[in-house]
Amino acid sequence: MAQDNLSAVLHARGDLHVLIQMHSVGICGSDVHYWQHGQIGDFKVTKPMVLGHEAAGRVVKVGSAVRHLKVGDRVAIEPGVPRDMDEYFKTGQYNLSPTIFFCATPPDDGNLCRFYTHNANFCYKLPDNVTYEEGALIEPLSVGIHACRRAGVTLGSTVLICGSGPIGLVCLLVAKAMGASQVVITDLDPQRLSKAKELGADFELVVKKGDETKKLAERVEDMLGAQPHVAIECSGAESSIQTAIYATRPGGVVVLVGLGAEMVTLPLLNAAVREVDIRGVFRYRNTWPMAIAMLASGQVNVKSLVTHRFPLEQTGQAFETTRQGVGIKVMLKCDQNDQSP
């Protein structure tokens, strides 16, 4: 796209926007799901849509009202931008606004492209010691931050994490950074659990399809010596949610992060009589500054999560790699002149 056309796009978007030359964009499971099925819940793809929402790049033009960014700044992009100053925006819960713009969620295009314009207030300058890829990984890291906040993870917390995919692993990293003393993490795949151990999990529990959920909960208790304060469910599987509820101690919290079937059977009476709170998580809010601080300080290290890299021209191969469940995080490199991390 010619530079004069890019300038016209920026002008049309408004004075508070910046034009970004995209550098690194991670592939999320939701991107693959839209590609394969054209729908997630009530969000249906009805026309061609650009994917991508885990992203970082370099500012190449700024709107006239932008004060905190300049040309050349490297930025991480928060993909959800409120459209209206509604009650959710006013109370800081902007992620729950029904009219929010969100990259790669119908009908909104994502940022898997060469150049992209975004609201400058939702672009965050990266410190010199934080790479573009780390900037892109702030998006999944933010899910972990929001989940741990919702769960109330704090110094000394014991935590069960169900599922050791990319989101389970970032929940592990964040829980440890927030002071969790012991973390048990589960998965069907022993290789994923090996990665979890490398990232700091205290106990790994291999589960099998058909395992009795109460028995699994007992095994978690045996590992920790007591029931965990918190369970963070990242798989969306019905049996895994059941295990999380049974495992959590009375007065504890179960946070549901994974997206599965619309209707599931759960032991709600068990949760109710033990005052186990069940809380949902929808994306994140107010997390980018904390995530950047965690990365810049070295308190959290996400670099090893990136296992595959592809140039933008090989997007199809990159998506197929993600669909097959190979590795952990696949990263697309959008800048033809800079393929560095």
From TrEMBL:
- Asked whether the keyword tRNA processing is assigned, the reply is no
Top-rank taxon of the source lineage equals Eukaryota
For whether the record's keyword set contains Zinc, the answer is: yes
The record's annotation in InterPro entries points to:
ADH-like_C, ADH-like_N, ADH_Zn_CS, ER, GroES-like_sf, NAD(P)-bd_dom_sf, SDH-like
Q: Which ranges carry the Enoyl reductase (ER) domain?
A: 2-332
Belongs to which family? Belongs to the zinc-containing alcohol dehydrogenase family.
Q: Which GO terms describe its cellular component?
A: motile cilium
Can you name the source organism?
Mola mola
| PROSITE patterns linked to this entry | ADH_ZINC (PS00059)
Recorded hits in Pfam families, A to Z, give: ADH_N, ADH_zinc_N
What is the name of the protein in this document? Sorbitol dehydrogenase
